[in-house]
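Hey Z.,

So I finally got round to the adenosine-5'-triphosphate thing we talked about over coffee. Here's the setup:
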Amino acid sequence: MIQKIRGTIDILPEEIPYYRFIENTARKVAEKYGFSEIRTPTFEATELFRRGVGNTTDVVQKEMYTFLDNDNRSITLRPEGTASVARALIEHGRCGDAMPIKLYYLINCFRYEAPQAGRSREFFQFGVEMFGAGNPAADATIISLGSSVIRELGIPNIALHINSIGCPACRPAYRDALVKYFSEYRNQLCESCKGRLKTNPLRLLDCKNESCAALAAGAPKILDYLCIECSDHFSKLQSYLDSMSVSYQINPAIVRGLDYYTRTVFEFIADGIGAQSTVCGGGRYDGLIAELGGPQLAGIGFAMGITRLILAIKQAGIKIPEEPKPLLYIASLGSAATQRALSIVEGLRGRGIYAECDLVGRSLKAQMKYADKIGAAYTLILGDNEIESGKAQLRSMSSSTQEEIPIDEIEKHLLG
Ligand code: ATP
Ligand code: MG
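And the result:
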């Protein structure tokens, strides 16, 4: 028996309504904010993610699905969406378009991680990106978009944590302060953090290891090191969020896993879905487009993990919209009745109605049971007698009443 690859998921039909609910809600909200959809390739040149996500990040160091194709090119299955969107803008000469450029996507991503609840090797994201707007009003709008999606999904107990990680002007001093602080406790750090101390000291702040986390709690705080511009940006963001009635808390431990972030970073964190509780992460990445060979262009965005949103929806017992049920199921016995049934359901489908009839030649009793199971609103029973007389019983499944109608008038009876 061939089985699916570890860490991938089959989404069976009964799970699909959850995905559709989230995707439809996300599209609806994004479009209300004026975002257009973009679709980019599932795989890209590995170099794009090395530069765009950053060589020192866990994603690039340990989590990418990278392989050589038949032409010996290094290819990577996308671990995230932002780098591809940025590449596409540069490649299609869109960086001079009217600003801001506002894009959203619904994608699958691939990361080689230890599979567990809320963490898989292929997973699904809803993401948004805004380019060409460096003003904190843009940050507030992106954050409010994320918070609207969560509100429209009806998920309670999700907290918004915001922070600023400064810019290339003020971060080096903070970085030095962190290195100085953590170096004193070097032997209490986990092996990964010993490495991070050299390559990416900010990342020590979100290590899940107990001893590292305890040390991180006492570490210097970035907010004390922000330059005037970054500090002004952060306080404006807070007053804009206040005026948009988006509630938040400031959390200096939010540093985000990707290298391209500058200034604002944020996460939406859910209660009660276990260790993988960040349902959405995002931030500003004013250096990314230039890093990828484009002009200097501001950018800000987020990505939501769809599987984690589903966990939160289930945890909260939220009722999601039901899949459509057939208006009519025709039970038929004999080939003349089957022929008539097929023509009736086809006619209804042509008028936009969901209708079904028997395709497996079951007994009448089994057909009625099936009609009940698929939730048909009405059933029509057709046998040789009905075909001959031109009349049949139309049964309402909800009221368990039936009336005899001319078969020819079925559409009139159902559609009025
Ligand atoms: P984490 O800290 O959970 O590893 P991250 O910082 O690596 O998250 P991002 O790169 O910001 O995550 O991705 C945005 C969102 O995508 C996350 O908040 C999460 O909801 C989701 N996500 C990330 N990795 C996975 C995964 N392996 N499986 C399922 N969802 C994921
Ligand atoms: Mg991760």
